[in-house]
């Protein structure tokens, strides 16, 4: 079996991640921040360490500004729904995942103005158009760091400078980049950073987080028990409790901590180089096959290791089915929860694309087998 659906969730995970989850369940088991007994303290220490590692990875000065969530979607919703009020204007791109575009659509129904800056055919954001979209009531720019459909990288450093210059908050959806591209919230002027724990950060599913810059006031999405300040009738305003109601996924965050340690030990540049090298081999091989359309930049300097294609004469879903059932190659076909991106690519009505997404544990040999399989399918269809 060849797993090439790392944009959905990475697999396999490092053994240290699995060990950390199991050890936490077997030996710790208690509720972090609830009670003063030694097991609860140990669970709290695990959460503290993971928050600290995340802060180190993203250059976040104060780890308590990181809210732990169940995924990037929850983090995006806490930021987007918590910040915007009727009368505010928000700018996004036309390449976003539904985790950004659906909360915005929902808010547009209650008096929040939304502008989607059109991207070009490769899914690239045109900065000039972004600047033109800024209005006096623009409160937030929210964009993905890299498209989950084409891998197209957005110029987040430049967007961060523009946002800062215009006094607009800047939120980044790092679902496809956290753990594989360097992210520095200070250098990039990122005010809100949403990330999943289970993709390139190599943690288990059910983990994610949100960085919220100091002095940003958000209305909580969820209220409830926080372990501390239980005497208060209302949600505490202290971080991270303000946005962390209910028991956290301690085994999951223990695993996430181990995933980040693995990344720091390997080195993020080495991880990116490996993925880019394999994606390049895949692109080169696919370019040689007649009848294939490759979407996105087609250039690893401008994209993450995510490649969307179609073969003339076969629907993406069927293509994915044949790859899985005949060749044991696992890749995601369809709209990838990002219909806007497929509108840009003009692949919405055709049922989307077939997406290969490479992870750190894929090998050159696997990528060559994928090229061979696609070649055989394309030849069969053309007969
Ligand atoms: N957002 C994930 C993907 O692109 C689930 O597949």
What's the SSE blueprint?
Elements: E1 2-3, H1 15-28, H2 38-58, E2 66-69, H3 72-83, E3 89-93, H4 98-108, E4 113-117, H5 127-133, E5 138-144, H6 156-165, E6 169-173, E7 192-196, E8 208-212, H7 250-266, H8 268-287, E9 292-294, E10 306-311, H9 316-327, E11 329-330, E12 332-334, H10 339-345, E13 353-357, H11 364-382
Parallel strand pairs: 1-11, 3-4, 3-5, 5-6, 6-7
Antiparallel strand pairs: 2-8, 7-8, 9-10, 10-13, 12-13
Helix pairs in contact: 1-7, 2-7, 3-4, 8-11, 9-11
Bound molecules: alanine.
Residues 7-8, 97, 148, 332, 336-337 line the site of alanine (ALA).
Strand percentage: 5-15%
End-to-end separation in angstroms reads: 27 Å
Question: In order across it, which strands form the biggest sheet?
Answer: 2-8-7-6-5-3-4
Helix content: 25-40%
Cα radius of gyration in angstroms: 21 Å
The biggest sheet amounts to: 7 strands, mixed
Query: Structural class, from secondary structure content?
Result: alpha/beta
Strand and helix order = EHHEHEHEHEHEEEHHEEHEEHEH
Number of helices: 11
Please tally the β strands and state the result: 13
Mean pLDDT: 97
Uncertain runs with pLDDT below 50, 5 residues or more? none
């Amino acid at each position: 079996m060849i797993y090439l659906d790392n944009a959905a969730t990475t697999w396999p995970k490092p053994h240290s991640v699995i060990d950390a989850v199991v050890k936490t369940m077997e030996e710790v088991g208690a509720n972090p921040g609830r009670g003063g007994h030694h097991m609860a303290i140990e669970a709290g220490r695990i959460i503290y360490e993971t928050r600290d590692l995340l802060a180190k990875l993203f250059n976040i000065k104060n780890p308590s500004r990181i809210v732990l969530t169940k995924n990037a979607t929850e983090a995006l919703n806490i930021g987007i729904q918590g910040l915007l009020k009727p009368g505010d204007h928000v700018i996004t791109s036309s390449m976003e995942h539904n985790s950004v575009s659906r909360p915005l659509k929902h808010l547009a129904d209650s008096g929040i103005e939304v502008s989607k800056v059109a991207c070009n055919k490769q899914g690239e954001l045109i900065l000039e158009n972004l600047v033109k979209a800024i209005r006096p009531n623009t409160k937030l720019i929210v964009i993905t760091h890299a498209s989950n459909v084409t891998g197209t990288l957005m110029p987040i450093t430049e967007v961060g400078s523009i946002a800062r210059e215009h006094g607009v908050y800047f939120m980044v959806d790092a679902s496809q980049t956290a753990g594989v591209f360097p992210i520095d919230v200070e250098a990039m002027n990122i005010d809100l950073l949403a990330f999943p724990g289970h993709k390139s950060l190599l943690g288990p599913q059910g983990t994610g987080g949100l960085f919220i810059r100091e002095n940003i006031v958000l209305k909580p999405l969820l209220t409830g028990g926080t372990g501390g300040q239980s005497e208060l009738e209302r949600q505490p305003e202290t971080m991270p409790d303000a946005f962390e109601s209910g028991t956290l996924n301690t085994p999951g965050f223990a695993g996430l901590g181990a995933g980040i340690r693995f990344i720091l030990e390997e080195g993020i540049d080495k991880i990116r180089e490996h993925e880019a090298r394999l994606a390049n081999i895949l692109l080169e091989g696919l370019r040689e096959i007649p009848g294939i359309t490759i979407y996105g930049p087609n250039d690893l300097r401008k994209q993450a290791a995510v490649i969307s294609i179609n073969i003339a004469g076969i629907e993406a879903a069927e293509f994915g089915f044949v790859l899985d059932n005949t060749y044991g190659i696992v890749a995601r076909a369809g709209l990838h929860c990002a219909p806007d991106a497929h509108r840009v690519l003009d692949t919405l009505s055709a049922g989307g694309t077939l997406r290969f997404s490479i992870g750190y544990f894929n090998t050159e040999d696997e990528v060559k087998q994928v090229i061979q399989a696609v070649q055989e399918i394309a030849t069969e269809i053309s007969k």
